[in-house]
Description:
Helices cover 72% and strands 0% of the residues. The chain has 405 residues and is an all-alpha fold. The radius of gyration is 22 Å and the shape is globular.
Amino acid sequence: MIHAAPVIVAGEWLMVALAFATPLSTAAVNALVFALMGCWLVAGQWKKHLKEALSHTLVRGFLVLFMLMAVSAIYSIAPPNALWTGLREALKWWLLPLFLLFSHSKKTLQRALMAFVLAMILTLILGFLKWFGILAIGLKFSAAAVFKNHIITSYFMAFAAFCLAHYAVLQPKYRWLTFSIVATMIFYLFFMSAGRTGYVLAIVLGLIFSWQQGRWRGFLMALPTIILVVGLAAHFSDTFATRFLRVSQELHAHGADNETSLGLRLEFAKISVSALLDHPWIGQGVGSFKTVYQAKATEVGYKTTRNPHNSYLYIGIELGLLGLIALLFLWHRLIQCTAQLLPPYQAIAQGFVWSFIIGCAGNNVLVDFSERHFFSWMTALLFASVPSMTKKFKKPEVVWSPTLH
């Protein structure tokens, strides 16, 4: 019989590899997930590991959502193939208890965060080479995106900058080098990237970081810097000006013969809200979004879609207000869990949770491949040590300290 300890160690290193692969390669992520499944099975004691995972407060939060999806299959109006796809996507949230087994070591968390940041630094370097025409890479993606589209890349870049900023505070020896990389990432986001998601999250995470470091004083000191960066980007970056400052023009220009990104999203939102109000309480079942939206869009003569670029609307149509309440409860529980973490992971977790709460309003990040996997392994690594629901939540005794290593 194979001893479990080496298998756990192997799984921990696979988690680090997964953190590096998530921003870079879909195929690599799939391969690593299958390898982690193999480690979980080889480790044995399945009943024990499953019981421990199910006792975790966040797994139970996901279990509520999963059970709602499973029950909704009974009354779903989705065709069989869409119903099965919806259930299959829901089953993928069970990666969280799988990842938890390999997430209890703080060294694994540290290595995974560093691996993720290194992947984004690689993306940054190649993005510059693409931008200046030195290297023909990522040609199917717009602007400076290389491995993933501009939406995913900008989200990951903003969060990587947030993590590096905390590292700079903790490591005075490398502070100038680290802040130089953070500044370069911010330049990438506002002057080179076409991802509005990155613009918004960079501002939000910047404000969260400043609040974490100095409360109101830090918050107020950060505002002039943010205004300066946005002003410079508006003046010198055609990409930023087109994507962020011409929002009103884009909305007015949208029409049947001239579709715009924001115009389509507003259209998706209007039709989705209308469809949600038709069946507000329990929705129309897992996998039903495309069917429901198509019927509603055809009725008013709009374009159909399978992705509203909004997780709240997506869940609202399929599971109704009951599903939205379950999702909001999960966000509430995640915010509660951040209070149980010690620095600097508490600060990183706060940025992580709020980036997803906000991200769900602009993209379907709970369904999209890269963001969903990122959410699963980051949640496992950050919150593996959080007490179960049966234990009382207590504030950690250690407070934030910039000198804590």
